[in-house]
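Methods — Computational structure assignment.
A single polypeptide chain was analysed. Its primary sequence is given first, followed by the predicted tertiary structure written as structure tokens.
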Amino acid sequence: MNLIKLKQKIIKTATIANEGHIPAAFSILDILWVLYDRVLNIKPKTANNPNRNRFVLSKGHASIGLYVVLAEKGFMSQKTLEGFGKADSCLGGHPDRKKVPGVEASTGSLGHGLPMAVGLALGAKIKKQKNKVYVIVGDGECNEGTIWESAMLAAHNKLNNLYCIVDYNHSGDQTLDLGDIREKFKAFGWQAVSIDGHNQKEIYRALTKKSDNRPVAIIAETIKGKGLKIIENNPEWTHKYPKLEELDKFLTEVK
């Protein structure tokens, strides 16, 4: 699918709500689409199947990207999506599993999504279920000790049903240079690959890669704000949205 339509929805929804992290949502949109379109194999009618694959958006501030994908896949109506950020809406700045259909974990406190995903993957192993667990973390989150504590636990328990996608858009470089993060995951006992996080063929291959009895780390090189030059890698736009009078210009220029 051409994701321009989804990017336009993100821009429009955030502009009307005066809320949302547009660049973070653009950064992971290709990954989200491949997950929900080709990998997770879940639908609204089977969203509670105990054998379903699970997805955790650890970088919960990118929720608006998840919401537009869920709406496109029928988990919510367009009217619900348009209510994003309103006081009476189920769609907040961070996803809430008790309110939003299709959301597996309430996230937002950075560094907590991977520990939850490890728990889900370990629980599946104990129950002898065949489902897989996927989690997206941001590169900034990888400054958190909980990420590496979870990485050690996952490797120790040989959680080959766990796939951690690092959205490596380098936004965290301004505070701490992570260096070769693929090698770091390898040092913690993971199978690890690096991909172009905007190339859907590469994303699909990595997400369906057979594990060799270890958890899998996918280091996705991405561009924060990918597809809209004014916000690409521009820290000013981290938590900013167009003014109503700018909306048409942004919708036209997005690629």
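Note: The first helix runs from residue 4 to 17.
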